[in-house]
Amino acid sequence: MGLLVDGKWQDKWYDTSKTEGRFQRQDASFRQNISSGDAVQSGRYHLFVSHACPWAHRTLIFRQLKSLVAHIDVTVVSPIMLENGWEFNGQLGDADPLYQHDFMHQLYTKAQSDYSGRVTVPVLWDKQNHNMINNESADIIRIFNSDFNELTNNRYNLYPKRLQAAIDAVNDWIYNDINNGVYKCGFATKQEAYQDAFQALFRALDKAEAILSEQRFLTGDYLTEADWRLFTTLIRFDAVYVGHFKCNQQRIADYPALSHYLRSLYQLPGIAETIHMDHIKQHYYISHPMINPTQIVPAGPALDFTAAHDRGEWTLDDVVLTTD
Ligand SMILES: N[C@@H](CCC(=O)N[C@@H](CS)C(=O)NCC(=O)O)C(=O)O
């Protein structure tokens, strides 16, 4: 794991020495949108992802739900991320079909030769102008939600105006305490930092459990981006975060509403194909040798997301708004 400094790769772990052992995520740097009109073209944009990564996973889910599979190709990096950062490896993931790079950091320096910062997935790339459109999943899912509607004729709106305030409010605590919260637990290097993140994480999971015991989705009757942002952390939780990141007060399987909700989302058409548990487990357990020096990947737990759930029978048409 490392980062680019003035366009040069350096193999360095996260620095927690100035933050009392607390992990702080750096903001993404490439934050363009795709303007409507001419810029919206089938086959012009390319998505670079890791199947391990919960942030990249959001973008793959939106690519499915928004009928973009035929229009935006995907390249999957190797799940093993060590001294060279994310790598292209035709055996464990895909080779780089655009530039035959060996490493993801080469894509960043192609976009900006003096780039300084972390080299993260997902990346939305413009093949026509050979530049990086965006490397922030929160933006990419909004681009997918709205910018290609003319091309696909898919009108599902996972960030509808009338729910935006509610979605933003939910995203805020779910991002800080759950999505990023598991990383704050796992990457903490001081007991107190871990303890604080752990308490905030399970307070937030208890809150999500209470909300979902009362209503179908996080913001009420409609499925929105807030649900998918929570989903990608929940699906990894029992397999990885409980053990590897020490998020072990209880499992998602021990929360009745959360576990049924998780299965109901998993069982929607197109979603199971976005989940690759082998990449998820290999990535975390092998790529963080300071946390797991033997790099042994646990064989369990047995998880069955196809089991029945009690959240009712519904399709996307029933629960996703198609209005602004
Ligand atoms: N804000 C970014 C975060 C992406 C991110 O941190 N991805 C992780 C993988 S799960 C990564 O690439 N980490 C590499 C690093 O930090 O060096 C987003 O949501 O798109």
From TrEMBL:
Official protein name in the record: Glutathione S-transferase family protein
Gene3D superfamilies listed in its UniProt record: 1.20.1050.10, Glutaredoxin
Keywords: Oxidoreductase
Source species of the chain: Alkalimonas collagenimarina
Superkingdom of origin organism: Bacteria
Documented EC number(s): 1.8.5.-
Keyword Oxidoreductase: yes
InterPro entries xrefs: Glutathione-S-Trfase_C-like, Glutathione-S-Trfase_C_sf, Glutathione_S-Trfase, Glutathione_S-Trfase_N, GST_Omega-like_C, GST_Omega/GSH, Thioredoxin-like_sf
Coiled coil: none
GO molecular function: oxidoreductase activity
GST C-terminal domain mapped to chain residues: 160-284
